[in-house]
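User: quick one - fold this with pyridoxal-5'-phosphate bound?
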Amino acid sequence: MSDYKLGLNYALEQDQNDALKTYREQFHIPKDKQGKSWIYMTGNSLGLQPKQTATYVNQELKDWANLGVEGHFEAKNPWLPYHEFLTESMAKVVGAKPIEVIVMNTLTANLHFMMVSFYKPTKTRYKILIESDAFPSDKYAVESQLRHHGFDDKEGVVLWKPRQGEDLLNYEDLEQILKEQGDEIALIMIGGVNYYTGQFFDLKRITNLGHKHGCNVGFDCAHGAGNVALNLHDSGADFAVWCTYKYLNSGPGSLGGCFVHERHAHRKDLNRFTGWWSHNKQTRFRMRDEFDQMPGAEGWQLSNPPILSMAAIRASLDMFNEVGFENLIKKSKKLTGYFEFLIKQLGEDTIKIITPTSPNERGCQLSIQVKNADKTLHNKLTEAGIISDWREPDVIRCAPVPLYNSFEDVYRLVEHLSLTLSKREGTEKE
Ligand SMILES: *Cc1c(COP(=O)(O)O)cnc(C)c1O
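Assistant: Sure. Structure tokens for the protein plus pyridoxal-5'-phosphate:
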């Protein structure tokens, strides 16, 4: 039983009592030409800009202007160890130990670098298991790894599919696949939160299952980082990767994150691609030493990183730290629960939520399937200043983000959806 109520007043009241309400003002919310704020529901695609990001980035621009190369040591936040300023707060956000986390490269690049170490095919065990509706980049990355090792990129991919007529994935089916083909599967690579359905998987359960059958297990947490409690360390996963421009609000194309479980931190037998940034910090600049690998996730770095992007990540992570991840999840569950409550009023024969109903099996996103819908529905919402995401054939994805979306946003979104749908029914009858 929910305590949610209908009507705008309820939404306004919730916003008034919201412990995180001051954070909305700390973001730039885009506006239409009349100056009315958009109802921005696509933080799962590109998070909004925190106002303090400019201050953080400007600090580095200023130090670069005034110090040039000396900024590596003399900047207010020296660039040489700059990535270390992110590690602890990023580790908190994904539920890992600092030694397990590094911010580097971009998401798909990190996925490849992780597969260099954790996809180790043999003649008999070479397949990669992914979810059938994996994000295209993940699918392409996995297929290219198969080809790179001389395997067939169709035959080598094992799909974990929903059952006929269903949208969500079922753990019993995964168990069955592993029972039948487990000894042929080298790697299980799943999107921690599926980008399409919003299903948040039980990472620990999948990892245990995979390990029981001798497979390595990794997750793409692009839709999980900053959105759900990933508890990566406790999951036991071998690796995870994610981006920081979705729920972590660090700007278009910003750097990715990478997790390597502590038990691999000191392994020298794992193959990896290396660069000078994977080399021991103490002797890196002697430039002539034999390669001496750094322990932990840091040892997977290659290059000296882009400080301007890292400054934006730092601005965002400082905010996450201040809020506290538990508080964020608490509001997120309430806000998305309210969204679900309102959507259900529209009647399940026109509109269906394909995202799991249990708050522990989803983040803030709801994927809504609208009967007989096409993209005009989405376009109508966009005209009304409601920014959502359309996925063919008939799904609208909306992600009310607890840091900057309000109960009023959610109320107005559903109000418009309802209005657009009833108008549509009107024209159908004419
Ligand atoms: C957003 C997203 C990507 C995008 O990859 P980039 O390398 O950052 O362009 C890849 N995989 C998943 C699951 C995503 O959600």
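One thing worth noting: The longest strand covers residues 185-191.
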